[in-house]
């Protein structure tokens, strides 16, 4: 069952401050040797002195993920990052990820100061769904329940009934369908179509996409699979339908990691940002992990399986947050209060309905049962 795509957005201006070329240009240099050790030692010291904790996404640099885990912070998907930041006692949060993750932390914890290594680290889904156009889309469909993906600005969340992440979208949309609700979905068209296919819900989709997942190629994936016939294919549902159709497991970053850790296969082809391989390999050291193919470096892809905005996070940026209070997130209070409702609704749902989440997760997984 296919979903109508009811609203389009103009292409972002490639000369804009947040285009992928500029993001790659701002990627910080890798630190090495004694310089890297000194920066890490200083960050560890300042995290304690400033009562701060580091929360990192699976897609950021492996050194940052290791630093978060070794200092009592957290490495997770966006749902668990939000929950951890809200519940942690630290007065200051350093969020290594992209802008909407820092904003979500601030919305949930206004009493905390939230910092990010580079405030220009954004997301193509967020960029492609500006608040004023989204308001027009909503105005056309006042009868629909508004469900937005986490990858949106605070100003878009302020217009939503529900926020979801890829970990809980299926369960929440399924529940809304049971309640007879029609849904207006934004911004990822691939995830929206996948959820619509799985639940049969009546969904109108915004026409956004993640530039990383959008570039996985089904034809190339089939060739890779032929070379690794026993490999299990894991696909994030932000990927195009033809890629999802080849998957053994379709799921969020957390679900993909779980599938590798618990799976009986020895080889896994992974269709999501390659930053996830760092944590995945740590948790499943004996499994062989293979990057799913895109158009290829030097070809047409803008990301080649790595998000340019996630790549903007560096150790020096974290140190700048702690030493100079740089990269602080501020959100106007009326917007924050408006945006809070849809996030709290999601957190309450996921806390109170683990059974529905587990059941829905079953729908993300093909061939191997629950993951
Ligand atoms: S990987 Fe895709 S969805 Fe995630 S932040 Fe980058 S552009 Fe956005």
UniProtKB/TrEMBL annotation:
Keywords, comma-separated and alphabetical: 4Fe-4S, Iron, Iron-sulfur, Metal-binding, Pyridine nucleotide biosynthesis, Transferase
Encoding gene (name): nadA
Taxonomy of the source species: Bacteria, Pseudomonadati, Pseudomonadota, Betaproteobacteria, Burkholderiales
Record has Protein biosynthesis as a keyword: no
Family matches, as SUPFAM superfamilies: NadA-like
Enzyme class: transferase
Entry EC number(s): 2.5.1.72
Superkingdom of the organism of origin: Bacteria
Pathway(s) annotated for this protein in UniProt: Cofactor biosynthesis; NAD(+) biosynthesis; quinolinate from iminoaspartate: step 1/1
Pfam families: NadA
Named cofactor requirement(s): [4Fe-4S] cluster
Organism of derivation: Polynucleobacter yangtzensis
KW Membrane (keyword) present: no
Name of the featured protein: Quinolinate synthase
InterPro entries: NadA, NadA_sf
NCBIfam families named in the record: nadA, PRK09375.1-1, PRK09375.1-2
């Amino acid at each position: 069952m296919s979903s109508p795509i009811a609203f389009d957005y103009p292409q972002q201006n490639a000369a804009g401050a947040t285009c992928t070329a500029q993001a790659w240009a701002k990627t910080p240099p890798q630190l090495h040797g004694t310089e890297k050790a000194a920066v890490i030692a200083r960050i560890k010291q300042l995290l304690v002195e400033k009562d701060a904790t580091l929360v990192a996404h699976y897609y950021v640099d492996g050194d940052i993920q290791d630093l978060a885990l070794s200092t009592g912070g957290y490495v997770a998907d966006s749902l668990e990052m939000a929950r951890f930041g809200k519940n942690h006692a630290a007065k200051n949060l350093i969020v290594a990820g992209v802008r909407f993750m820092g904003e979500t932390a601030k919305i949930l914890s206004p009493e905390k100061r939230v910092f990010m290594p580079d405030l220009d680290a954004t997301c193509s889904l967020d960029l492609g769904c500006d608040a004023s156009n989204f308001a027009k889309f909503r105005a056309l469909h006042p009868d629909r329940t508004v469900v937005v993906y986490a990858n949106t600005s605070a100003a878009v969340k302020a217009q939503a009934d529900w926020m979801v992440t890829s970990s809980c979208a299926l369960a929440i949309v399924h529940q809304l369908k049971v309640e007879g609700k029609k849904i207006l979905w934004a911004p990822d068209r691939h995830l929206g179509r996948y959820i619509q296919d799985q639940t049969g819900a009546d969904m109108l989709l915004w026409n956004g996409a993640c530039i990383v997942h959008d570039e996985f190629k089904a034809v190339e994936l089939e060739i890779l699979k032929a070379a690794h016939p026993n490999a299990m294919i894991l696909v994030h549902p932000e990927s195009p339908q033809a890629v999802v159709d080849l998957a053994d497991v379709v799921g969020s970053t957390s679900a993909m990691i779980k599938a590798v850790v618990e799976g009986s296969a020895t080889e896994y082809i992974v269709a999501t940002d390659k930053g996830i391989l760092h944590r995945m390999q740590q948790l499943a050291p004996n499994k062989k992990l293979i990057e799913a193919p895109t158009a290829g470096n030097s070809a047409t892809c803008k990301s080649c399986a790595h998000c340019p905005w996630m790549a903007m996070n560096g150790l020096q940026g974290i140190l700048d947050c702690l030493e100079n209070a740089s990269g602080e997130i501020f959100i106007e209070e009326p917007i924050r209060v408006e945006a809070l409702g849809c996030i709290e609704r999601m957190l309450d749902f996921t806390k109170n309905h683990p059974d529905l989440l587990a059941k829905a997760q079953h729908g993300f997984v093909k061939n191997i049962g629950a993951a």
